[in-house]
Structures are given as structure tokens and as C-alpha cells.
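ENTRY TYPE: paired fold submission
RECORD: A
CONTENT: sequence, then C-alpha cells
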Amino acid sequence: MLTINNNTARLKREILVRIARFQLAGKLSEGVHSIPRELAPAGSPSIRCCAYHDREILRQRVIARLGCSLEEYDEEKRLADYVTEALAREKPTWPMLTVLDLACNACVRAHFMVTNACQACLARPCLANCGKKAIAITGGRAHIDEEKCVNCGLCLHNCPYHAIIQIPVPCEESCPVGAVARGEKGKQRIDYHKCIFCGNCMRECPFGAMMDKSQLVDVIKHILAQKTVIALYAPAAASQFRTAPGQLEGALLAAGFSQVLEVAWGADITAEKEAAEFTERLEKGETMMTTSCCPAYVRAVRRHTPALEDCISSTRTPLHYTAEIAKKENPQGITVFIGPCLAKRREGMDDEYVDYVISIEELHALFIAKEIDPAKAAPAPGKRLPTSWGRNFAKSGGVAQAVKARLKEPSRLKETLIDGLDKAGMQRLAEFGKIHSGAVPPGPDTPNLIEVMACKGGCIAGPSVIINPKAAISQLTKYAEKGL
């Protein structure tokens, strides 16, 4: 897993900050052309073959950050034309991801490779454990015949010198549902029918070729038009800034939002409703329910494990309930969810109460552009305080604990957690699907409530966070302790 401190993340932030600064100054159409040149000045070390190639890639990155799809890229269009298109749109466009072909490394097929650490030892466990006879010892070293190799990894796991390594295709390797694959021209393509929008490919591609289409330009446009723009911030967003109670709210108001609501309010509603639904299902004789707050998980079931679909709680997400509150209080208000999640962009498109979704990365860029330090912002406490349970929705295990806290008979609960929808997590879903369908009999330890988080660690480890999850969990703990 790539850390958040890398050149790809830095470049993304720099582009977002520059776009925001130009737009806030009313000079986006005029200034946008300078961004590629500023980030790849003449004489600077090039990432590709030359500065001009780098600038073309940067130009396309700017287009994605304006919220436009690169699949429709026209090299004859000026960046100002894309700005006009971005400012004219009335709502975000599908899909939320776009692939920058020019940046894609067209990685070779994932394979195993023998390094010079090989000792051609007497035991030769690599050769002995290869069922396909794909390994031979020649010239005092093991060699793998890639035509015979099936990438099972037995040679890697059995080598006592760790002399065999796996060369992966990061975006493919990180996708839990096989939605990313090489296209006809050798570049990676996303199958949106399979995709669950977990954001793993976007986070793991070391070339930054998998890109989310930003909605920051849209939000700033409405702020500048002095419309009622309501920020709905996820508990995970609060974990990303080292702020005291009320300071994040103050920073958001200083950034131009008209009103600020904690999505932890909605989490309390979700927990209350899921607890009631869980009790009702048990009374009806049902044996299994899963949580519903993670949209990547819900899509994973509907597209890949349909046997579990009727186990998903019918309760809506914290985002939905918070946005509903905001719209009922301000019918003409524009709701903007702020969180670490790509799948929430998909949820926002489908929810009648959600207008826009921006990432924590985008909010951070807006703060930098407006020279706002959240840790120094004047506190502006919200009008209603959520519970600590609601705020802890952001970490793995938090949802199940919030539901349990609201049960009249918590001893009836047998919860389990799927912490991260990697390939192993998807396999666990499939196993629970077999139990639910009757293909496999349940055991005495079979859970009746399954919490699923697509991101390992929970939302605090989402694909668009700005601090290390270990630091985020510490900040979240402090934030949650201030709840009711």
C-alpha cells in the first residue's frame, strides 16, 4: 500500500491548490494554462522523456481536477474551454473515475522473478513445490519459465533465502473484484459494471494514472455565487485535522460554507434504525444482517455476492440522513459531503438530498488556497452534538458497537467484522453468502451481525485521506470523546 506521503499525492494537491486559488481570484480561465508550466518548469528534471511530455501529462491532470473525463480528451481544446465546460455543468458527470492513458506505465503482466540472492541450494524447495515444472536450475541459479508459470506463488513462499519476488501490476493487484485489466492498446481499463468504487486502484497506482474527477470547482462556484452551501463533514474528516472542538466548523465557515453539519448526527440515526431492524429480523427468524453504511461494500454484494443481498440492512446511510436534515431545513441549500471515500461520490449521485461530494484532499487544498489553518480557526461549535458512538463510525468496529449500544438485549448480538474488502475480504463475503443460501450449514459461532468496511481500518484509511491512519485513529479518539 502506498503511503500518503509520495510525489503523486503532492502533485495532486498542488494542482488542486492552484485551481482553487485562480478560481477564488476570478482568474481560472486565464490562469489555468500556467499550471503545467509552473509544475514542470524549463530545466527541471523530467519524469518522462522531457519537460514537454511532463507538461502534457500535467495538462490532462488539470482537466481531471476540473471534473472532466479524460476518455473524451481533445488535444485541440484549450484548458480555458474545459474551465467553461466545468463551470457550466449543473451536476457531476459519470463516471467518478477517469484513466490518464499517457501516465499509465502499461505494466507488464504480473509475474515472479528470481533475484541474484538465489543460492541454487541442495534442497531446491522452489523446484520441488512447483506443480507445473516451471522452474529449472541452470548456470547456478533458478529460472522461471513464464510460459508454464501460473503465478501460484509457491516458489516465493518456499524459498529460504527470499530470493524470489513478485512483480505485480499495482492497480490490478489492489482491485478486489477484477474490475481493472489491460485494454487492447496495453493500457489499463476499468470495467464499471464490476467496479465497486473502493478507490484502491487510484490509491495504489504509482504513476497516478487512475484519477478521481474533482467536484471542487463546482462547489467553489456556488460559494462565490453566495448561495447557501452546506458542508456535511464525515467523522473521518474530523480525524484528519488537529483541531479542538468547533475549530473544523470554524474553518469550514471561513472557507465560505454557509452552514456546517456533522454526519455523525446521521450516524446516530443509522445506528438507532439498524438496532431496531436487527431486533425485528431476529424476531422474524432471520439469522444474519449486515451493516449498510459503506457504499463500496453494498455495491460489492449487489455485483459480486448477490446471495447476501437480502441480508444488507435496509437502513440508509449516515450521509443520507444528515443530508435529509439539511435539505428539510434549507430546501434551496446546496449540500456538500466531505469525506475520504470515492464510493460516496457514487452514493451522492444516487441520493436525492446530496448535491456534491468532495474529498478530504480537496478540502485540504481549499484551506491552503484560502490560507486557513484549521488548528488556528476560531471555534464555531455546531448546534447539536452527536454521540461518541456516531463519531466512531469512522473506524472499523465502530458501527457494530454503536448498534450494540442501542439494543435492549445486547447479549443476542454475535457480531463479526470484515476489515477491508481486499481479495480475502471478498472471499469471506462469498463464504457468508453460502451460509445464508443454505449451501453451507451455519456453525455455533456463525455471526448474526456482520460489519463490513471496504477500507482496512475503516473510513479513516480511505483513498483520499491526508494523514497516516495511525495518527488519524488517535485524533478520532480525541474527537469522539467530545461527543455525548
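RECORD: B
CONTENT: sequence, then C-alpha cells
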Amino acid sequence: MGTRKQKIITSLLFGLSIATVSAQTAPRHAVRPERFLIQHALLIEGNGTPTSGPVDILIENGVITRIGNIQATANDTLIDAAKRYVIPGLVNLHGHLHHERGGMPMDRDYVLKLWLACGITTVRNVGDSDTPATLAIRDDPKHIAPRLFVYPMLGRPATPDAARARVRQFKEQGADGVKFMGLHRDIMEAALDEAHLQGLPVAHHVGVEETNAWDDIKFKTRTIEHWYGIPDAALDEGVQRFPANYNYQNEADRFRYAGHLWREVNWEKLGKVFDGMIAAGVAWDPTLTIYEASRDKQRAQNQPWFKEYLHPALEAFFRPNLENHGSYFINWTSTDETFWKENYRLWMKAVREFGSRGGLIGIGEDAGYIYQMYGFGYLRNLELHQEAGFPPIKIIEQATLNGARILGQEKKFGRVRAGWSADLLIVNGNPLEDFKVLYPTHGNGGIEWTIKQGIPYHVPTLMREVKQMVDVAKAKAAQSK
């Protein structure tokens, strides 16, 4: 009798188990479930701590609510992430939501979907796009896109009052910050003062001009982009030793001699610049990826994802043409590449030194120029930061939590923690062992799901959609010839 009763109970329990499993659903691409459970994941939190797991991650209405050992309920959307890694969504601090290249149209969704497919859930869009259109996408919860922070380009106002008015205009538009580039000192001082008054952080591409990192320190910009202005602040002569016929507006001159700059630095002075940046809270977004073609043009021109995913507008823009910014490879020589190889070695040494002193380093791509595709250029940065000497676990922190810190959002996203936004990547492979597993073209599947604010995006689906856009654009380009 006891045995029969036991069999009945077992049968009932087994039937309940089957019913529970059958009621659970797999995630649907671009549809946010109310209750979403990721089970058995190997977790990299994003705060510099090592992998832990397996753990379960519960997401409710776009927010991580629990991490631990969690029992699935009947109506959960469920992913079994056994033997897969979960890391925070990546934060791209230097993105450009382009809609054309060299006058040739390019769908913004091409850029947005590549970003998501490469695991980027947040982008600081720094100028060089249609600001109203970018703001509209930012504010549309239905648009398939990363979270956007919009930093319009200040331009070159003629007077301090005009600079202040421009900053106030951005605030009225709803901008999240401002990008500066090519400013006289009095204009920079006024614009930054107004930006502080309006609560708009500033990203500064310093350029070769009368300001340098000491001005960023004095006026307290949020980030210095690329490197310009940092080595310039540590030169013994106060200016780089350019040849007499140098012309900054000539792109070939500009980038050729940028490859000579780091070898002229006084490293004792540079240490003082770094200490000043750290004390003033000025972070560094070095965008190591964007000038890599300068040290190896052949590699840059033959990246394997170009064949299927390079938009023809980008392909045309990349061809050597001094009318297109960054398309400067005219008479580019082995000597130029040799200078740039040394420039990279010293630049990486400087970034590593800044980090070792306690400086805040983030990661941005600046893609759409110099043979860099959106998203792919960002992921290459992770490898370059490893080449610079940072351990992989620190690089994940730079790409996630540090990006959130720079945006002032470290209590909202940038790590996998209860109470934070569900910005997660489910990865087929261990990124701490090989950053190449993050590429959507990786043989093992790369990132399988990019989850932004609890919305799961299926990466293979995104890449199919990107390829379709590229195929259509190629067909139109062929017809127009």
C-alpha cells in the first residue's frame, strides 16, 4: 500500500514537473518578459572580482532582483546558461550614430544592430550625428538600440557668450552632455563653466591647439578622448617638433606626425599631468582601436567581417581620400608604420601608467573611420588593452562599470548585481581566456544573447538582419554604377 501511494505521489510530482517545464518559455528576440530567469551561469560581475558560479539570475521588469539558487516558476522565460559566461553589457564611450558616410546614405539601424550584436548595451554618442534624430531614438523605448547618452558637438563658437548660449541650447534640447573639439582657451573656459552650471558633462577631443590636458584639469572636463592634449602637456618645448611645411588641416600631415608625438614626451612631466587628471576627476577614454591601421594598414584593410557585413557607404568612405576625415592613407609608408608601432608602445605604456596611479579608464571605439566597423572596433579595444598590460578581469571592469562611472550611472548599470538594470551578455566561451569569443562572427557562436534593460536580443538574428541591410545596399550601389 505504501509503495502504491509512493508511486502515485511520484507520478503526481513528475506530472507537475512536466507541466511546469512546458509552461516555461524561451526568450523572444526584442521582447522583454516580465519575469526572466537565467540559470546555471558562470558570472563575471564587472567590478574586478573573479568568476563565480554556477548561479541563477532573476530579472523582473528589466531589473535584476536576485542572484543565487533560484527555483523556476511555471511562467518564467528561461535560459539555461550552463557552461556559459554572463558579463555586464558593454559601455561604448565614443560612438557615432552615423546615417551616411561621405554623402552616401546608411541606415542608422545598421549601426545600432551591430552595436547590440557586439554586446554594447550603452553608447555615449559624441557628436557627428543628427542630434534631433539621435534624441528621438534615445527616447523611443520600442527602437532596437542600446541605451544612448547624447553629447552634441559644440562646434567652434566665435565668442564666450556664443559658447554659453550653445551649451544652454543643448540643455533645452535634452542633451546628456557636450563634446568639445578645437577650442581657444577663453571659449573652452566659458563653455565648460556653462556646462557645469547646466549639469552637462564634457567629453574633450583636445586636438593640436592652444589648450591641453592642463586646461582639462583646471576646468574639469569629464573625459579626454583619444590621447590628444595629454602628451602635449608634457613636452619640454611646449609644442611638438613639427616640420616647417606641416599643415594640421592636411589629414596626411596630421596623422603622419601624430605618430611621432609620444616619443617627444618628458615622462616626469607626464606623471604630474596624470596626477593632476586624477585629482581633478578627469577620466581617459583612449580609443586605442581607432588608429591601429596606422601601424598595420594591411591588417586593417582585410578584416574578416568586411566581406559580409561592411556597408558599401563605409567601404567607400574608408578608401584613401583627403576629403574624408581619417581616410589619410595616401603614400603611407613602412616608415610611417614603424613610427606608429613605437607610438603605440609608448601610448600603451602611458595608459597603463595612468591606470596604475589610480586613473579612471573607459573604453570607446570611434568607429565609422579608419577601417573600423561599429561594435567590432569596440571589441578590438579589449584586445589592445590586454596588449597594453591590463589583466582581462580589469579590462572587463573598464568596459562595463568604469563606463557607467564615467557616465555617472554606476548605481544603475555596469555590473551584474541585484537592483541594477539587467544589461547582460550570455557568452559561449570564457572572455577572460580569449576576448575573441565576444565577436559575433566567432566560430563558437560568440555572444548568444545581448540583454538590455531586460530585453533579450538574439545576436545571430541581429547579424542576419545586418547582412540583409548590407546586401540590399550593395545591390542598390551596383545598380547606380
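NOTES ON RECORD B: The two ends are 85 Å apart (CA to CA). Residues 334-356 form the longest helix (23 residues).
STATUS: closed
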